[in-house]
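ENTRY TYPE: protein
CONTENTS: sequence, structure tokens:
***
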Amino acid sequence: MIGQTISHFRVLEKLGSGGMGVVYLAEDVRLKRTVALKFLPLHLNSDEEAKQRFLQEAQSASALNHPNICTIHEIGETEPAPGEQGQMFIAMAHYSGETLKEKLGQGPVAIDEAVRIAQQISDGLAAAHEHGIVHRDIKPANIIVTEDGRAVILDFGLAKLTGAVDLTKTGSTLGTIAYMSPEQVRGESLDPRTDLWSLGVCLFEMLTNSRPFKGDYDQAIAYSILNEDPPPVGTLREDVPSELESIVDTLLRKDPASRFRDAREAEVALIGARSESALLFAPMSSRRLPSSLKWSAIGIATLLAVGLPFVLSRTADEGTIEVTRTWQVTHAPGLEVDPALSPDGNLLAYSSGPEGNMRIHIRQVQGGRTITLTDDVPGNHRWPRWSPDGSQILFQSEGAVFVVPSLGGFAKRIISMAPGEGVYGADWSPDGTSVAYAKASGIEVKDLDSGEVVSEFAAFEPHSPAWSPDGRNIAFVSGNPFFVFGTASFANLAASTIWIGSIDGTESVRVTIDDAQAVSPIWSPDGRYLMWVSNSGGSRDVYRVRIDDTSAPRGNAHRLTTGLDAHSISIAQDDRTLAYSSFQATANVWSVELPPVGSVSVSSAVPITTGNQRIESINVSHDEQWLAFDSDLAGNQDIYAMPLAGGESIQLTTDPADDFSPSWSPDGQSVAFHSFRDGNRELYIVSVVDRVVERVTDHPSQDRAPDWSPDGARLTFFSDRTGRQELYIIEREIDGWGESRQLTFDGGLHAEWSPDSDMIVYISGSRTHNMSSSVHELRVVSAAGGKPVVLVSAREAGLPAAEAPEWSTDGRSVYYKAFDDEGGASIWRVPATGRDPEPIVVFDDPRRRTLYRHELAVDRKNVYFTIGDFESDIWMMEFADQK
């Protein structure tokens, strides 16, 4: 086998063998990377059951995309010699490092390292279990620890895919006996909790360098597993914390119902057991943490529940902030955001309901009945703010600002915008006589008695204004108002910055840099600090900076929390109680076969990507072999490529700035995308071969969503260069890229080239002024310019609003994603000539929800889209601040 080339893999050396395969080191000569090839042993090749188990291993693992699970590149079979059978193989990622078994041969593992390894194993198991896959053979030999300290689960040879044929047969005991759960030893049907037992055995062994259940032969070990209790790890190693000893004990409970409920709960407990040094955090980092390491509000609550002080910040000049209590205030499914604490700190106002139809509610902080305040006003109600005396609450809806009595009553409109113009947050002045509000062009202040605008200043995409306690300044966010206020693009991932504007009209001061998302600015009650939410460190956490007497930031911003994943925050006047909405969003790629006629349900969709990630944009290569997408899997949003036949996702970009909207070049050698690398959106191209990035546009506006023409000579994109979103075309020249040419003149978004490079389909309209109703018509226009032709109008009776157009591969039809007034999603097909459109995919399964994203891709057989979900609840946090 050494020296042979199997498919496009050149075999280099033998790495090892086991009961289910022989593994070789090989070189992928096509992609120039090192892989591990696992072959079914020759003496088992005629065993159909072994072959099926081998295939099941590959199919199970290839359905997963997680940093702590071994990546499967390809499944294949060797060319058989005359009269012989071919040999099946799996091409897997090769990891430099050592197995946990080899590591244990060197003695006990340091406590913090053992907990970190166990935490990563539990994270990988959680991803597998969430997709119905049970490993069933977790043991040190099946865990590799890479050179950079990452734990990776190997060998899904005994994995049982829920719903698949049980190849290991109830009653048999395939696996390694010392790591088997009691139910596995008894030959019973297994669920994910068997893997938790095996994880407990591995953790016990890492901490003590001995196994919890021993015997001279298999039957003796099995007896010990079924009938004996292991010694407490603290009796074998004195420095093991009691919290960690309790975790091991929970993992090794003989009754599965007494173990952790799932691997995710085990992971949270392991996070809580980390030493205090792991809970100290530095100022903003330049690269965000992987999504697999993000902590949830539940995790923080767990730390407190087990009695650990949760140190949020410890710096020389900022003192120590320590959480003393957290509790969850709201529990309803769906979105609960925009928390606002009353001046006395006893009541909480917030927004809740489906995107596009939210209402304002109030309730007591310590519990009680929830009251809905704004049922009498139509529209989407957001951003409640208490008046200084606590008697009224202002909120916004459909381009207007209203006030409503805080104890209930009729809402009164106090500010109205021009038709088509939106409001993106408002706030009371400290004396209650004026209201500041954000609109598309800047911040305005209106006196409530006279109704006159008494102050204003310009800003780019301003939103979320917050008035300083002394009344001199207004903090606000610049950029990406869709994250907070969007309906069609709620929680949009894009960079934004915090600024401080002055009422007297002096120049605004920048507080944060623009390579990350920063939202929800609030002032400390004494006005000495400004706080906000940012994903600069990975998860969305609370940051704080000191504000000096000149209203400018003094020193560096400091991260106060980790793992909150907050959407918005509010602080009480006591300066020790914080309300925050803990927000989670996930999205992965799914597909269904294109129906020749009629429509199909999304319940027939199958997953293409998996894992704890959020994908916003997708594109299929012209040869239909590869999928490109953007994902936050490694921390911030980067561009990835993945073979549609199954296998590892290849990360193409690694810049700390977010990258979005990939588009394949016709030859499959490059991917175009837009990025925030220089403070605003510009177009770039990355080579798939060597990862070299080329900049395409350089303009102070926002250039986004490139699409490559099938002839490879041009890119189309949309930009706000004129103050409104329009379509542009840029052409490749001998020495680079030429000047951009404007294609539309009455608004245009999300353009796609026809297969013959002659026409462009797009969505008319502009997002500058109206985020909640921004799409109008599906149009086509000649790439040479001219009058566009309407294919579908949102104003036509009974048709949902069109988004995300995509040509069929033969150019005869256009597919598009659409949403009705209630947010119901569907995918439609319309002839390129513009005849009657028809739905082809209906999102009628509430468990498979597509987010409001402009992502859609098709090939000759399938349509691709994302399925994900939003979830947010309001939490409270009490903390002690020793400044």
Observations:
- The first strand starts at residue 5 and ends at 6.
